[in-house]
Structures are given as structure tokens and as C-alpha cells.
């Protein structure tokens, strides 16, 4: 019999110590988001192949794990020779399923709807360090709120949650970057770029952290844009500093290209969130923040920690996407955390992993111990457990010293031994 | 664009109230099993197709959702015309993945290893009321313990967990049935059946609850078994009563067909578990308990509630299966609960569902409220949350009375309103 003992390529077996850390972090995530009124929901991991290939998923649609038709339907597909063998696929994100879920259950859901989704997604990507083919995503979304209370709640809740998680490893300082797609658009138009060139211009701007302003200039010129527009554009971004003032930056663009209510809205979001989050968290206006996905329509945000080049959370407003998907306009705003990245950072810092509970007792019983002694022990174990203790009852091994050493490694520090006599 | 708003056939969207109940029950399950020293682990939902079709899964192997090969590999498969289009499949249970996991990670795991697995499994079964194509399984297993401490811990932990769950709906009494495959075998051999006929004989005995002894007699005769053996067999099972004594029953079989250590072992398991579980739980020796799966080698158990025809948990010892799977003998014993069935029973009894937390406050803000009033409100929300409260901040809707009525349905009872002036 052929038997493969490693997991499927790019997927992980979770050891007990992995799970203790993950479960601990999940409980912090759930309790923090619950305290902001987010409600957990779940969708099946399988989605109709039509929904997954509706062009809303961008490049992720190339990475779908497809689930084969079965029985007579598969037979028909093979005989027809058309190679449409799949009727379902595994979800590659939690946003497409959320749109379907909202369309299916809208009448039963509150308005606005504050949703928390935690679940695995699958992408047939090339596995690399820290990039898996099955990984957990954790999204909060507010559907049906077109006011900026949505942004304020999302940013504050995520900031709070990150504060609680990273406090465990002594990290209190991180930064949440915030910008608005309309500011990005306004700056490009003001500089003289055409509307249809904006996506290409933003792809260059997005590289700011890596290549700087000079690099962006080179990039834009190489892409054939007029030197005048490029120079105008870079002059807007010339004075980037640590504490960039949103209003001062936007004044360079002017009301013709950027409605004042966008600027005012962003100021309100930043002031509102600041009133709710830890003073250790930097909340900065970052006019170079772009965020890759095309579906954002307004505010965008991203969280990062000093010393790590990757972001640990990102999101924004995407008022059109759910509507395109389910045929009815629904304003939407979301923040998604990089669960696996956060776990990676925590693992870097936690030397001994997450231990088992402190009040843990291991009872080792000689298999020839008399029954009455065993029964006494069981009764005592019951009492300890009822009092909230963690008790494991194990057969005493020949090499008890080694057995105890291993249990100590697992986090057991209290031992009882029940001998033969 | 084609868009399907219902979930994939046989799978469920979980509404917020569903998730509150499920999460609450999961937390009871996890905390109870943790108090017995079980360690949570996780495997990827996808397994190699070779492992899933290794003949260890019985009929479940016919119900696999297969995941298609991708790219060049799929192309080669199609061109070869052999219809081997799948390289992976979704797991149909948690036992096959556990065997693979154990083979893969044995060196890093304690001996014995007490594992808790909670996760979805998928079967392309015909969906019916209470039977889904994606459903949650929850298994505890002890690997590497050949003493009956394993059975005592498994039965006690599961009993405790069921007590805690059902106490919430006022059900304190349920029954755990226990038997041993060797007793089933001994009784059949003693009656005069041949060893190779035992599986067929047990299929008849398994129907006892539905067809009674007369029905079993008819069944066996129709299957062509000798009348003498059938009569002998039924005489062993003639005196089935509520409090069947294990030793008295087994005395009818005798040591030639049933080693005394099996009887003694079962008595110890029952006495040991009784020392740890609630007095409300009936733990009964049930010589008609069979359990379908062929892989059990010793003790078997099943839990049921009065008034429900289906069992809510089942398990037993399966010392050979992991070995057959990973090529090395590993003693193993497990107990699996029917999570979805338990949820169904709880839903039958819970009129109002699981409410949101008691200390929940909804703050409704008029979108034209002045910024300073909003900031004061945010600061107060922060304080409430830091004190452990659940606070949701929402835009005030035009029909506030209706908005509040809906929030009350969700479980909010404390409201703050922030007006325009």
C-alpha cells in the first residue's frame, strides 16, 4: 500500500505547541473583536466554481484548488471532452464568500452588519518560507455603513487587538498607516496624468519604501510618462516626513481634484481612532500607501511593526465590490490581519512556546497498582479537575525519570506517583 | 456574470447565532478535554489521494471530494486519457489524517500521546436533515497506551464533557454503553459459528435495538446459519436486562472462548470511570453493542440520550489500524463525539439561542453630531471596553425605534444615543 506520511505540499501539521499558541492568539482576537460588537460567522470552505472565477479575485483566481465533479456528472464532463471537470473550488479568500453570504442571508442580518470571519483559505501558490498553500485568514468587515464610524471602529478594534497580542512579547509600539484612494487619484490628476494612467502610476508609487522618490521617477519615465507630469507628481510627494499633516499635504492637490469632505473625513477617522487606541500606537497619514487590490474605493489602511518589512494587517473601504458581486449596492469596509505572519513574529520571540496551564498535574500509575489505590487516585483526580486543575493520568513507564523530564518539557511541574505497593 | 448565492449543496452558512452556540460548545469541549491533558492538534484539510483511498476508510472512500491536479500535471493526466485527474482529496474523517500525522511527527510527540482534534470533514453523501456534506468532527485519541487507563480517561473525559454541555439545557442523565469486541467474538464462537462468519453475525446482532431477539433469529436463519448455532447464540443473549452484570454474562461464554483478563479489564474500566464521572451518568455493560467500523480490536463504547434514537458519541480501541497505515504497531483508543448532532439537540431546546454578552452596550451616533461630542463618546467606549464591556458603535438610523428593537433581539439592552445637538 502506498502511504505518504508528509502533509500535502505547502500545508502544515500543527504540533501541540503550535496549536497552543494559535488557540491563545485566536482567543485574544475573538474576545477583542467581540468587545467591539463584531459577530463571528462562517461559510463552507467550498464555493461554487462560478463564484470563484467571477474576475473579482484577481490573480488569486489562477491559484484555485478545484474540486472535481462526481459520478454521472463527471462522466458527462469527460465524455463531452470539454475539460470542465470541476463544479466547486476551495475559497482563496474570505471576501468572495462574504459577498455570497451577505446576498444569501441579508434579511436575517443586522444593518450595519459587523462580521468577523476566521478561517483557512487555499492557494496553489509556490510554497516559500512563511507562505503556505493552506493558511488562516482573519477578517473583520462592516457592511451597510457608509459613515466613517465604520473606519473608526475597524481601525480601533484592530489596533486594540494587535496591542493585546504583541504586549505578550513586549512589543507595544507599532504603526497604522492610513490614506485614501481619492487622495492618490487627486494627486495624480493634479500632476497631469490621465485618469486611465492612474493604476500604472500607483504601481510605481507603491514601490516608495523600496526605491524612494528617485526610483519612482526613473520608473515613471521608463514607463513613458511625460517628464512634466512626473516632475509635478514628485513635487507633491517631495516633503514626506514622519508626521505628515493630512490637510497640508492635500492642500497641494486642491479642491478641484480632491473634495474637502475626503480630507475632513480622514481627519475625523484619525481623531476618532486616536480617542480609542493606545497612546503607544502611531496612527499616521501616509500619502504613499497604495494597497494592491483594485477594489478599494476610499480609505485604505495598513499596520506594521518596526523591524519587519512586511505589513501585519491591511484593509480599506470597498463600496462597489459586494454590489458588483451580488447585484445590489452595499457599502463595505474591512480590515484583515495576517494571522500566519503574526504567528511567525510571536514564534521568533517566544523561547519556550506557550506552556500548558500552570495548575497541571501528571499522575503516573504503575500498571500493577492495586485497584483500590487506583480508584482513590481517580477520585482525587476528579476533585482536582472540578477545582479547575488540569490532570493527566498516564501509565508509569519503565524509565520514569525520562518520562518526568519529558513531561516537564511539556509544562507539567507537579507529579503524583501510584506504585504497585 | 453567473453568481450563485446559496452555499454549495449540503453545506451551511453559519449565522451569528449559530456561531455563538457553536463557539460556546467548542469552548466547553476544549476546556474539558484540556483538563484531562488532551492536546489539540490540527492537520491540513487536504490529504494525498493515496492515503484517502488506502481501503482503511470503508464506504467513506466512495464519498471523497477529489481535488484536481493543476497545470502541467493535469495536462499530462488528460492527455494520457487515464482519468486520474486528482492528486489530493478532502479528508472524510480525522482518523486517517491522525495516522499520517503520527507517522510524520512521532519523534516530537509524547508517549502516550493524548490528542484532541476538532475540524471539518467532507463527504459527498446524499444530504438529508441533520446530515451535511461539510460537518465538524471532534475526536480524542490516546496513542501508545496499551493499558486500560486509556479507556478510563477517554470515557471519563467524554462523559464529563457531555455532562457540562447538556447541563445547559437541563439534561443531566445519559447513558454510556460499553462492550468489548472480544466478548462479541467469544459469544459467537461459543455458540458454534465459524470465525469467518463473525462479521455477518455481528451485523444481525447490531440490529437488536430495532428488531429484538426474534428479529435477529430470523435474520440469522435467513442468512443460512445453522439453527443450532443460532439457538445457542440467542440463549447467551436471552437475559438482557437494564443492569446486565458483565461477569455473569461472560461466564456463559467461558474461558475457552474469552480470556478472563478481558472481563477483568472491562470491570476495571467501568469501576475506574465511575470513580471520575457524575453519578447521573449511567455507565452500562451492553453485550449487544457492536459499532459498525471493522477496525475495532477491543473495548467499544457509545453514548446516548433518552428520547433520541441516535448515539451522540462513539469509539473504542483500534490497536491494529494505525500500524497497518504507517507500518509500525501503535496501540490506539479513541472517542469521537457527534458535534452536529449535539448542536441539533441543543437547538431543539434553546428557545432564544445564545445571547451576546450580558454587559453589551450599543452607542448610536447621529452622523451630524459634532466632533467633540463624538470624541467624548469614543473615550467613554474605550473605558467600557477596557473594563470588559462589549460596546458597538453604530450610525443612528432614521427609524431609531426599529433599530433599537432589532438590537434588543440581538441581545443588547443598554443604549446610548449621541444626537446632533
* Terminal Cα span of chain A: 47 Å
Largest β sheet strand count, sense and barrel closure of chain A: 8 strands, mixed
Strand order of the largest sheet of chain A: 1-5-6-11-10-9-7-8
- Helices and strands of chain A, in order, run as HEEHEHEHEEHEHHHHHHEEEHEHEHEHE
What name is given to the CATH topology of one domain in chain A? BirA Bifunctional Protein, domain 2
Shape of chain A: globular
Number of distinct helices of chain A: 15
Beta-strand share of residues of chain A: 15-25%
Arithmetic mean pLDDT of chain A = 92
Broad CATH class of one domain in chain A: Alpha Beta
Number of distinct beta strands of chain A: 14
Please write out the topology.
The structure is a homodimer of 421-residue chains.
Chain A: H1 16-34, E1 39-41, E2 46-48, H2 49-52, E3 66-68, H3 71-80, E4 86-90, H4 95-105, E5 113-122, E6 134-143, H5 149-167, E7 175-180, H6 181-191, H7 198-205, H8 208-222, H9 227-236, H10 246-251, H11 260-276, E8 282-285, E9 299-304, E10 311-317, H12 321-326, E11 332-337, H13 339-349, E12 360-365, H14 371-386, E13 390-395, H15 400-410, E14 414-418
Parallel strand pairs in A: 1-5, 7-8, 12-13, 12-14
Antiparallel strand pairs in A: 2-4, 3-4, 5-6, 6-11, 7-9, 9-10, 10-11
Helix pairs in contact in A: 1-5, 5-11, 6-9, 8-9
